[in-house]
Amino acid sequence: MVVIVATIGELHAQYSADALRFSQTQSSSTARFKAIGAQIGVGGDLSSIGSNPAGIGLFTKSEFSITPEFNSYNADASYLGKTTIGKKDQLGLAHAAVVWNSIVSKPKGAKLDEGWISFNFGLGYNRTKAYGDNILFSGTNTKTSIADYYAQLATINYGAPNSLPSGSLERMAYDNYLIGYDKTNGQYFPETDVNNVQTKNDLRTGSQGEINFAFGANYSNQFYIGASIGIASINYTSNSNYKEKGFNVTENNNYDMSYRQYQITKGSGINAKLGAIYRPIPTVRLGATIESPTWYSINDSYSEGLDTKYGKNKVDSQFLNKDETYDFVYNLRTPLKISGGIGIFINNQGFISADIDYVDYSTINFSAAPNYDDPEVIIDNNREILNNYKSAVNYRLGAEYKIDKLMLRAGYGIQGNPYKALDNDRFKISTYSGGIGYRFNNIYVDMTYQQIIYNSDIKPYTLNPGNSPMASINNTRNNVFLTIGRRF
User: Fold this and answer.
1) In a domain, 9, yes or no
2) DSSP assignments along 279-299, one per residue
3) CATH number for position 42
4) What is the mean pLDDT of the chain?
5) Residue 8 contacts residue 74 (beta carbons within 8 Å)
6) Helix, strand, coil % over all residues of the chain, rounded to 5
7) Which of 140, 174, 283, 422 is deepest in the core (most CB within 10 A)?
8) DSSP letter for each residue of 302-342
9) Global pTM?
10) Residue 85: which domain range?
């Protein structure tokens, strides 16, 4: 996951990065399948409502469960030779669902296990992504300053200082004496020196979720079909602050600069899933699912502000700017996803399962909302997507083993790298999980520990040609899920 700094000079890059962020979701589930991971070909669990709706066709009783989760996020960031750690914990609702079992009435004397046996209905909530991130990095830059970036933006986008728009980032930097203007060559230049201390903190909150209405049917205990409609939602907030301390050569004074960025994105959308499970023999289940794109309508509000104080031991002068806000309303279509899975059952003692997904992130598409009058932003974002993203394959393996009423589970998964130009192994997402479950009468309790590991690179500012500093971040999420359920 590469995060590109968002400024007015290259605001289109922000939205293409967000589009990928909102497309890389995971099917949330009960603690049972959080531990196992691979569920497309298994079914018979409330997780099927949000993954392969054919799986609810295997239910022979009605069932309800709820799954709260605890998430702990660690970001180990390396920036300019210095390592910094960011942490954040949060609680949330991962999954809640109910399935109603409905047996098909048959004429007297008819075989109960042939033909249509049951039509089941499900309703469930899945949290498909959590945004409890706290990214922090700091270091001393001996080569560049963010003022180099501001100078490049002003030179590329505008002419003399009287052409700098009020409220623009370039105007803020000029008014803060971070950049100056050379009338001779018509270019802006940084007034700051190198060997400055740079620190960035990006706090992200929110989540993506989905409410699914599902149907599943059982034909002769051998073929199961299902479909669902999902109502998806996005609630994402990023509160970022970049600080730089150093010496301003032109002003002959120390400076302390703060560049604030705040983004809040809300959206709603709709999708559909169609699935099937087939039992060629009693011990094998084969599953497949087609998940449509999610068609979102999104409201995005982005603001930025730049303040600078001068003085070594006291504030000789300070320049404060009101945050400027930029709103963008757009439509987003996420990729189609095709999944297949297999479950192999062993003597009623457990099973081994495997899943595979195919997702083409280059098919992400922006379109203009009604009354939107800047088509260039839409065109630029779609060009960014085609140039930077590619298709990816996800894999999941899992197993469950039963000892009387106790069940032991484990799983492993890889979410493929979506970037064309970046190393496949470095930018994949790996998931490790394990859990236990206990059944008594019609009540069950499951608990799972899950660890998600992935890498990301963040540039606090982008220079052309590329002397841009970069933070390399090792991200780890440690999650605990608890499911309590009842059959009725």
Assistant:
1) yes
2) EEETTEEEEEEEEPPPEEEEE
3) 2.40.160.60
4) 93
5) no
6) 15, 60, 25
7) 174
8) EEEEEEEEE-SSS-SEEE--PPEEEEEEEEEEPPPEEEEEE
9) 0.91
10) 2-145+192-487
